[in-house]
Amino acid sequence: MSLIKHAKTYLLNQSNYKHLNAFNSLVEPSVLLARSGISESDRAEEIGSNDVYDKPIAIKDNICTKDLKTTASSGILKDFVSPYDATVVKLLQDDGAVVVGKTNMDEFGMGSHSTHSHFGPVKLQRYEGEEVSAGGSSGGSALAVATSQCWAALGTDTGGSVRLPAAYTGIVGFKPSYGLLSRWGVIAYANSLDTVGILGKNVKDVEAIFDKLNVYDPQDPTSLPRSTRARLLDPHPKRPDSLRIGIPLDYNIDTLHPTVRKSWIRRLRELWNRGHTLHPVRLPTTQQALSAYYVLAPAEASSNLAKYDGVRFGSRAEGIDGAPGRVLFAKTRGQGFGPEVQRRILLGAFSLSAQAIDNYFIQAQKIRRLVQHDFNGVFARPNPLFDHDGTTSSKKRKGVDILVCPTAPSLPPSLSEVETQDPIHSYMNDVFTVPASLAGLPAISVPSGESHDLPSGTSCNSVGIQIIGQYGDDKLVLDAAKNL
């Protein structure tokens, strides 16, 4: 699907689905129409085998673009225009991709339903007369892809913010291994967890974008250097016909929705029938992963967001800001940040305080290391970041190639239900996505491939199946997703 043939279709969809609030800003229609008017002969040499050339791509609104505002869906950044493009945006544009707009999201990426936005919630219309959560925080990107308002989209995934929206909207969402895709130009939420992710309607499209963006960026201190990337190359590129697939028993929780459990079992049965072998595995520490995540991520956020005070960065509140005895920018931050961001800043500030840091932040870091140890213990391939000297990798290991589990424990809730949920209940949506984020592993959510009856009498494909691989096994995860 190229921009040449479908520019008017994309523009029509953007107009028809405006009420879904997937975009915060869009390029001028004249820009798309002008580009689509270029003759085939003028661009034939440029296209070649380029998979992303001329493709309309949406960008999450916390990824910097110099031609469109970058607000992170926050009131404190509502007027911010970046002087440069993020590396991932520049790479796509250099290959001829067309940025069509910036997508709505949870403010600064903090949320699971894309409802905590200065511009209003993203609305997925699924039930008759009822609006449903599109997932978060990359809900705008996911919904833009699902409704064909763009060909593919970039999001960010800190604890599941690409995979959860992909599951809720019935598309593909991929979180690569931490450090493979540049974060330069991405507004930070939690530096040690933030990962640029990709959303598309199929795995092939997602992989095409991943191949373009999987390069070293010297501007990003978290980007894996070339020497480390060389260790990630698979010395045995020929994949076995039969994969050893791990079933994490710790993900079979009591609150797992029956429809989700049924889809999970059905997909495992299909893989078994295709000749793959199934192996139950235990990941005991992942049961504490969610608690650890909601200590570590807010702690990093409270530090990262300290600069948005209206003095160094961000919009400043009108009038006198700073009554006698109060912080100079108290009014600015109080008005600029939404309630969820304020909540997480307070959580993070508390866990980093002198009296709490040992009991919360330090303990959470220990849990994070144990989660990583659990994953390393079940995968057949050693973690290349720890076993590059050959001492462990030379030994024969019995383990699995990938893990297959649900992306979310439930079907997408209605927005009215989300509004009445307490924060703890909302955080539970990330229970299956957070462990891979803590360990920095590649993970992808693919649609279950079947329709499910919903209470209203309609049906939808809103169950996501998640595939998790060892660090650096991104290609294996993508290959397995194609088969699934």
Chain-wise SSE layout:
Elements: H1 3-16, E1 23-26, H2 29-36, H3 40-47, E2 56-60, H4 87-94, E3 98-103, E4 124-127, E5 130-132, H5 139-146, E6 152-157, H6 163-169, E7 172-175, E8 195-200, H7 203-213, H8 226-232, E9 244-248, H9 258-273, E10 277-281, H10 289-304, H11 330-336, H12 339-351, H13 358-378, E11 402-406, H14 415-420, H15 423-427, H16 434-439, E12 443-447, E13 452-453, E14 459-460, E15 464-469, H17 474-483
Parallel strand pairs: 2-3, 2-6, 9-10, 9-11
Antiparallel strand pairs: 1-3, 4-5, 6-8, 7-8, 7-12, 11-15, 12-15, 13-14
Helix pairs in contact: 1-2, 10-12, 10-13
Task: Please tell me about this protein's structure.
- One of its GO terms (molecular function) is ATP binding.
- Allows the formation of correctly charged Gln-tRNA(Gln) through the transamidation of misacylated Glu-tRNA(Gln) in the mitochondria. The reaction takes place in the presence of glutamine and ATP through an activated gamma-phospho-Glu-tRNA(Gln).
- It catalyses: L-glutamyl-tRNA(Gln) + L-glutamine + ATP + H2O = L-glutaminyl-tRNA(Gln) + L-glutamate + ADP + phosphate + H(+).
- The structure is a single chain.
- This protein is of the alpha/beta class and 484 residues long.
- The protein has helices spanning 3-16, 29-36, 40-47, 87-94, 139-146, 163-169, 203-213, 226-232, 258-273, 289-304, 330-336, 339-351, 358-378, 415-420, 423-427, 434-439, 474-483, and strands at 23-26, 56-60, 98-103, 124-127, 130-132, 152-157, 172-175, 195-200, 244-248, 277-281, 402-406, 443-447, 452-453, 459-460, 464-469.
- It has a domain at 3-230: Alpha-Beta Complex (Amidase signature (AS) enzymes).
- The strands form 3 sheets. An 11-stranded mixed β-sheet has the order 1-3-2-6-8-7-12-15-11-9-10, sandwiched between helices. A two-stranded antiparallel sheet has the order 4-5.
- Helix 10 packs across helix 12 (339-351).
- It is globular, with a radius of gyration of 22 Å.
